[in-house]
Write a structure and sequence with these properties.
Length: about 375
């Protein structure tokens, strides 16, 4: 698909599926705004979303509803699984994905309307599933901030996954939201290795600042975990590298740690292999072997990542359980700060010690 360009506007051809079709008004036009100052190098494509709460098909994900106020992501992670969403729009999955950011400028108003509908039953909504809600554009448009306000007013439970410390801007809002509804946050931190971070996630804040955000969010009484993902073959997958980031996550007070090896679906795989060929051609043969069977690495490798994370968790947690057939372990750890919040809202049993056991999940 090739967008037709005309004086300051982009026009997409007719889009029929939910991924793209829900974005555009009848004219299927987007207003182009070239970024200046701190947004230089970015282009913002303003669209009106016809629908902002999207349902997720199938049962494979732990959430049924998502909101993505932006499409494309200036964090520019080279492995990003969401890159093909730009393809839907007739834009490229490489530089276009990183620099041409679709902004659903009516996201907050549209959300308030959908939350008020009698058809909406107040189910959990996940953010950060297809683009980072705290990428650079959020500093300019404040859509995520408005969405949090709308969800709080409706006492609608939500979760946010981000790589950005910009989330701390909204700390008071998130605390207020957590007083009214279930709020769950996760920071994604794949590695502590600064060279690997700069090479693979050039638009993101440094890993140690993200872990500091995890600490501050938990200290404020909001449950925040860490997603150690993706663990990158040949770059961040040595035993000591995985141990270090899982250990640092627990030390930052993360209420959960989920470690996940790199997977590469069609489209992203070609993009990632092309990037590797330029920056680390020595790693290509290994990747061709690892991904010969498809999008996922062999079970042996996935188990190794899981085992390392599990070993670290055992040092930090008091008990572990795993149901037969589950790929997920549950650990128990106790948190004073969450006990304080649960006490004030009386929404969970508080142990005599004043501490609340919290589930820790590890999967790979
Ligand atoms: S932060 Fe997330 S959505 Fe953004 S580029 Fe990185 S992986 Fe993709």
């Amino acid at each position: 698909m090739t967008p037709h360009k005309s004086s300051g506007r982009l026009r997409w051809p007719l889009a029929t599926d939910d991924q793209a079709g829900a974005l555009f008004p009848d004219e299927r036009q987007a207003d182009r705004h070239v970024g200046t100052g701190e947004y230089r190098g970015l282009e913002f494509l303003h669209v009106n979303a016809r629908k902002i709460i999207n349902s997720v098909p199938g049962e494979s994900l732990p959430f049924k509803y998502t909101i993505n106020a932006y499409r494309g992501c200036s964090h520019a992670c080279t492995y990003c699984f969401a890159r093909p969403t730009h393809d839907y729009l007739g834009l490229g999955i490489g530089a276009d994905f990183e620099q041409k950011i679709v902004v659903k400028i009516n996201a907050v108003e549209q959300l308030r309307a959908e939350l008020a509908s009698p058809k909406w039953l107040g189910e959990h909504i996940a953010m950060g599933t297809n683009t980072d809600p705290y990428q650079a554009a959020e500093g300019k448009y404040h859509l995520t901030q408005g969405i949090i306000r709308a969800l709080t007013d409706a006492a609608n439970p939500f979760s946010i996954l981000t790589k950005s410390t910009l989330i701390l801007r909204d700390l008071p809002l998130l605390v207020a939201a957590a007083e009214r509804t279930e709020v769950r946050l996760d920071l994604s931190v794949g590695t502590l290795d600064r060279d690997v971070w700069k090479l693979t996630e050039p638009g993101t804040p440094p890993p140690e600042r993200r872990l500091d955000a995890v600490r501050r969010l938990n200290d404020a009484g909001i449950s925040c975990g860490v997603l150690v993902a993706p663990v990158l073959p040949g770059l961040s997958d040595r035993d000591d590298q995985i141990r270090a980031v899982v250990e640092a996550s627990f030390n930052a007070g993360a209420v959960s740690v989920a470690a996940s090896p790199l997977h590469l679906r069609p489209g992203v795989k070609e993009h990632y292999f092309g990037w590797l060929a330029e920056v680390r051609p020595d790693l290509l043969p290994r990747h061709e072997r690892l991904f010969a069977g498809g999008a996922y690495q062999p079970q042996e490798e996935r188990s190794r990542v899981s085992r390392i994370a599990t070993d670290v968790a055992k040092d930090h947690c008091e008990g572990t359980t795993r149901k037969p057939g589950e790929r997920q372990w549950t650990y128990l750890r106790e948190f004073d700060h969450l006990a304080r919040r649960h006490k004030s809202t009386e929404d969970a049993p508080v142990e005599q010690s004043g501490r609340v056991p919290v589930q820790l999940r590890l999967m790979a």
